[in-house]
Design brief:
By secondary structure, the protein is of the alpha/beta class. 27% of the residues lie in helices and 19% in strands.
């Protein structure tokens, strides 16, 4: 018996991996985050599988289902959105599994920030502009941020920021980052990236909050901040494909 933590991807049913889909099809018990995992993915479970939406359940209730599956020798598909290593809340589940001696593994998925970049049609790392991506969030009702991981600290420099779980805290994001990045710094808010109702709002630190408020977005949105989002930003070509750049797979021509 094994608990499979599965990343279902950002939302589009065809952005799930083959491994993840095969696990969902095979497991007799499927526990999924109902508000974030598309129904089309869960419909791939076998006809005889017990499928449970964990959105209304607490950790003890979720673990009770897993322990019952263990007693019956049944594998469990624990389906999370995006990639479970990012804000997936799997660590506390894994801690319980280790205490109980229940085996587990993790199947990665396409993360929301990657889907957001794809829908924007952009690269998040550009030569001369930004070579770093910071995945973070702000403290609203969730766990407090550790020392040194506040937006004031992370916002310094030119790294592209992918700010999760913070759409209701956009006023704070704007207030903190404007002095660090400038009011004209590009911002993109992507609501439910890759879903049929995906919404993209582009702006700057000066006007993005007003645009998001007008659109009525209050949840399930990712905030991207950085100069890489400016389609007019100048950058040099990567050295990767430069004519005079040689390496073991492309040796110098004699």
């Amino acid at each position: 018996m094994t608990v499979h933590f599965i990343g279902a991807g950002p939302g589009a049913p065809d952005l799930i991996t083959l491994r993840a889909l095969n696990l969902i099809k095979a497991c007799p018990l499927v526990l999924y985050a109902g508000s974030l995992v598309p129904r089309e993915v869960i419909d791939q479970a076998s006809d005889g599988a017990l499928v449970i939406d964990t959105a209304p359940l607490n950790l003890d209730e979720i673990m009770a289902h897993i322990e019952a599956a263990q007693a019956n020798g049944q594998d469990v598909a624990r389906v999370h959105s995006g990639d479970p290593s990012l804000y997936g809340a799997i660590a506390e589940q894994i801690r319980r599994l280790k205490t109980l001696g229940i085996p587990y593994d993790i199947c990665p998925g396409v993360p929301a920030f990657a889907a957001a970049a794809a829908t924007l049609g952009t690269e998040l790392t550009l030569p001369d502009v930004s070579q770093t991506i910071i995945l973070t969030r702000t403290a609203v009702r969730a766990s407090a941020m550790p020392d040194g991981e506040d937006l004031e600290s992370l916002g310094k420099g030119s790294a592209t920021l992918a700010i999760h779980l913070s759409i209701t805290n956009l006023a704070h994001v704007e207030k903190v980052l404007t002095p660090l990045r400038g009011a004209d710094c590009p911002v993109a808010v992507i609501f439910r990236a890759s879903w049929p109702d995906e919404t993209i709002i582009r702006g700057t630190l000066a006007d993005i909050r007003a645009k998001v408020k007008a659109a009525g977005l209050t949840r399930t949105a990712l905030i991207l901040v950085g100069r890489v989002l400016d389609e007019e930003t100048a950058f040099t070509d990567s050295r990767l494909y430069a004519k005079d750049h040689t390496h073991v797979l492309r040796p110098a021509k004699v």
